[in-house]
UniProtKB/TrEMBL annotation:
InterPro entries: Glyco_trans_1 (IPR001296), GS/SS (IPR011835), Starch_synth_cat_dom (IPR013534). It comes from Sphingomonas rubra. This is Glycogen synthase. Pathway: Glycan biosynthesis; glycogen biosynthesis. Residues 2-234 form the Starch synthase catalytic domain. It catalyses: [(1->4)-alpha-D-glucosyl](n) + ADP-alpha-D-glucose = [(1->4)-alpha-D-glucosyl](n+1) + ADP + H(+). Coiled coil: none annotated. GO terms for biological process: glycogen biosynthetic process. Synthesizes alpha-1,4-glucan chains using ADP-glucose. The gene is glgA. Keywords: Glycogen biosynthesis, Glycosyltransferase, Transferase. Transmembrane segments: none annotated.
Length: 475
């Protein structure tokens, strides 16, 4: 089976979040199930090295007003196509915003062009390429099913929601410039409360919708989580498939980012990694070491955590935080570090290597998200023996087994799960974690349970492959 995956980012080439990890890891996992995935990405500056040895296989003199080339290359052992359009993608800053963090005003055109190219590939309009299925990831690829349908593609399509809060909604005035049929300006197409909805288009026009955990697939049918699209999801349905980890990247037994590598049988070696975390974050030796690797936003519950930092330290805990986001939250965490030198250490920004060290050295990771489609951070924690303390939502609820009395007695608990994202709920969860940490045999069992589980992509990739075949095999 030949699948064209289209996305705006892919690890290790360009990453702003978990989407990149999924797009980077899923093709290799699908290959074990008879699916060959070709990934289509925008030609950001970060792609320069990847495309240097590639070959130009197609040209567009006018792709939504820009000259563009399609470059064929490889990402590891997997086929990769890069849409090289300097006018659209050769810019400083990140994939979506300039160096000051402001969204590019022509993001609609940048990602409509990506989707148009995907649609032409899916429709067989690029010589030498034929695909059985188009897999569109998030809003940036949301128009790909629309273009594929408009161009008469025989290939089926799947739209995957990684986070329904990000929808790609633009002014109605761009619709005539997209080159799509007038009939698609409707409630069954791109129209979304009088504007153009990229994600909405993908959800309305793809043959099947998936999202990244079973619980999230149910949550987004409700107003609280659906962000205005709950009616569409309730009507069409969504299949929840939990994300996995790439063991070539996330494996404490082989991770080059760790001073000491280990397995669930060699957990004592983590003490060297803890010492490295303490040195990096300027922390004194002491009680349980909590970590955070997160965007600092209300979605992630960081506003609630910020109110509990004094209490965490007074209770004997310590915190190492790596993240960035809301400036007021950044200031609150930095102020707490100033109040509690040696107990709280903060790094504003993101560092891939440092994120591995935190998972390999901290005792527990705090993830009090108000909603979390799947979450990969808790999976990293489980795989590394960094016990997750999570809110009961989305993929967090699907992957972490709470250390309640029954789960502890059965020997199956893997973390601490709390209901609601309130100061009381999170404070109680942190206190529970501290009490469990004070019982070394119990805490070690939590670590071992998480590490022994299979968090690879294999089972989820098999589910994707089965779904793809259901769509493409003729009756």
């Amino acid at each position: 089976m030949r699948v064209l995956a289209v996305a705006s980012e892919c690890y290790p080439l360009v990453k702003t979040g978990g989407l990149a990890d999924v797009v980077g890891a899923l093709p290799a996992a699908l290959a074990h199930h008879g699916v060959v995935t070709t990934t289509l990405l925008p030609g950001y500056p970060a792609m320069a090295q990847a495309t240097r040895s590639g070959r130009v296989v197609h040209r567009w003199p006018d792709l939504l007003g820009a000259e563009a080339r399609l470059i064929e290359t490889q990402l590891g052992t997997q086929p990769l196509l890069v849409l090289d359009a300097p006018e659209l993608y050769a810019r400083p800053g990140g994939p979506y915003a300039d160096e000051s963090g402001r969204d590019w005003p022509d993001n609609w055109r940048r990602f409509a062009a990506l989707s148009r190219a995907a649609g032409e590939l899916a429709a067989g309009l690029v010589d030498g390429y034929r695909f059985d299925l188009l897999h569109a990831h998030d809003w940036q690829a949301g128009l790909a099913p629309a273009y594929a349908r408009a161009l008469g593609a025989a290939a089926k399509s799947v739209a995957t929601i990684h986070n329904i809060a990000f929808q790609g909604v633009f002014d109605r005035g761009i619709f005539p410039r997209l080159g799509l049929p007038e009939s698609m300006w409707s409630i069954d197409g791109l129209e979304y409360y009088g504007q153009v909805g990229f994600l909405k288009a993908g959800l309305a026009l793809a043959d099947r919708i998936t999202t990244v955990s079973p619980t999230y697939a149910q949550e987004i049918r409700r107003e609280q989580f659906g962000m205005g699209l709950q009616g569409l999801i309730a009507t069409r349905g969504a299949t929840g498939i939990v994300n996995g980890l790439d063991p070539a990247v996330w494996n404490p037994e082989t991770d080059a980012a760790l001073p000491a590598r280990y397995t669930h049988r060699l957990l004592d070696r983590r003490s060297r990694n803890r010492a490295a975390v303490e040195q990096t974050f300027g922390l004194s030796e002491g009680g349980p070491l909590f970590c955070v690797v997160s965007r600092l936003t209300e979605q992630k519950g960081m506003d609630v955590l910020a109110t509990l930092l004094d209490e965490l330290v007074d209770g004997g805990g310590r915190l190492a935080l790596l993240g960035s986001g809301d400036k007021a939250l950044e200031a609150a965490f930095l102020a707490a570090a100033h109040r509690h030198p040696g107990s709280i250490g903060i790094r504003i920004g993101y560092d891939e290597v440092l994120s591995h060290l935190l998972q390999g050295g901290a005792d527990a990771i705090l993830i009090p998200s108000r909603f979390e489609p799947c979450g990969l951070t808790q999976l990293y924690g489980l795989a590394y023996g960094c016990v997750p303390v999570v809110a009961r939502t989305g993929g967090l609820a699907d992957t972490v087994i709470d250390a309640n009395q029954a789960a502890l007695a059965a020997g199956v608990a893997t973390g601490i799960v709390h209901d609601g994202v309130t100061p009381d709920a999170l404070s109680h969860a942190i206190t529970r974690a501290m009490h469990l940490h004070a019982r070394p045999p119990v805490w070690r069992r939590l670590q071992e349970n998480g590490m022994r589980a299979d968090w690879s992509w294999d089972a989820s990739a098999r589910t994707y492959a089965d779904l793809f075949r259901q769509l493409t095999v003729q009756p």
